[in-house]
Amino acid sequence: MGLVETEGLILKTYSLAEADKIVVLLTRNEGLVRGVAKGAKRLKSRFGGGLEQFSVINLTYFQKEERELVSISQVELVKSYFESASNPQFLQKFSYLADLLTEFAPPHDPNENLYRMAKVCLATAAEVPESLDRVALYFELWILRLGGYLPDWNQCENCRRILNNDDSASLQINFHILCQVCRKTKSNWLISPAQRQIFMMAQKFSPLKFVEYAGEYPNDVRVVSSILRRLIANILGKETVGEKLLAASF
């Protein structure tokens, strides 16, 4: 492929040998990229502070055919979230969301909608630090929707009736819903009208507008997010490392 220039969001970095780093990025034009930044750990590295986690950068790298790791030659810092990431809760939450991106984004398969969604969620959480749970729900929902995994909570899976805003619904094992007429057992998880609205509004609103809307429903946000995390774990066949850390914090 040769020399590539693109914008990217740094998801993770790892030490490699004494002086180098492996950098995992979600890029605008090339999808998920893993690269080596040689000399990045040196005091006078040419990369400076441009490889901090969650930074948005312009980067140049060289890629050889049939090699997964690219060679990063130059970075230019566009936006730093170093101050936000110094908050342990922010760091923990976005480390979990970074895990989701590395699991759902195929290497070198560009998805600009996914990239823009990740960037705007990061910016929203930095602007409204108390909105971390709401931003995470928005992120979880959209990573499922963009991947084609999001269930339809607008209608009953059995009778196909479109539900009203004030209708409760019954959650099935496949994460789709049944109306109360089609509900087969009282043991099914009941989805309240407020929880269905949160699920629907996250698909209609921008992240900033959604966190404003959902701020009045913290308990319902936690319930919907927990359902989405269960769905994600089912799809991946495992919990992400970040998800285990989140679970341990409660």
Explain the overall architecture.
- The chain has 250 residues and is an alpha+beta fold.
- It folds into 2 domains: 1-80, OB fold (Dihydrolipoamide Acetyltransferase, E2P) (Beta Barrel); 86-250, Recombination protein O, C-terminal domain (de novo design (two linked rop proteins)), CATH 1.20.1440.120.
- It is 39% helix and 23% strand.
- It contains 8 helices and 8 strands; from the N terminus they run βββββααααβββαααα.
- The protein has helices at 82-85, 88-104, 112-127, 132-146, 193-201, 207-214, 218-236, 241-249; strands spanning 2-16, 20-27, 31-37, 56-63, 69-79, 169-171, 177-178, 189-191.
- A 5-stranded mixed β-barrel has the order 1-2-3-5-4.
- Strand 6 (169-171) and strand 7 (177-178) form a beta hairpin.
- The radius of gyration is 20 Å and the shape is elongated.
- The N and C termini lie far apart (46 Å).
- Residues 241-250 have low confidence and may be disordered.
What can be said about this structure in brief?
By secondary structure, this protein is of the alpha+beta class. The protein has helices at residues 82-85, 88-104, 112-127, 132-146, 193-201, 207-214, 218-236, 241-249, and strands spanning 2-16, 20-27, 31-37, 56-63, 69-79, 169-171, 177-178, 189-191. The chain is built from 8 helices and 8 strands, in the order βββββααααβββαααα.
Can you tell me the CATH class of the largest domain? Mainly Alpha
Structural class: alpha+beta
Average residue pLDDT: 91
Kindly identify the CATH topology of the largest domain. Answer: de novo design (two linked rop proteins)
Largest sheet: 5 strands, mixed, barrel
Count up the helices: 8
What is the H/E string? EEEEEHHHHEEEHHHH
Per the principal axes of the C-alpha atoms, what is the gross shape? elongated
Question: What portion of the residues fall into strands of 2 or more residues?
Answer: 15-25%
Low-confidence stretches: 241-250
Query: CATH H level of the largest domain: which superfamily?
Result: Recombination protein O, C-terminal domain
The total strand number stands at 8
Helix content: 25-40%
